[in-house]
Design brief:
single chain, alpha+beta, five-stranded antiparallel sheet, 5 strands, DUF397 domain-containing protein
Amino acid sequence: MPAIDWEDPFCGEGANCFRLGTDTDGNAYIAVAGKEDAPLTDTREALRALIRDIKTGKADHLL
């Protein structure tokens, strides 16, 4: 696995924490905090799109 530069954890209510990371090859990663050895991987643009969609409320139905 390439070296991943992880951001500080984002934690919601009830301590549901996840981390975002990137590598030098242009990949983006999302992992549950403490489980960084098993991340989901996609492109940075896909991660940007996911974050934009979450901010606009497109994932609110999942909550």
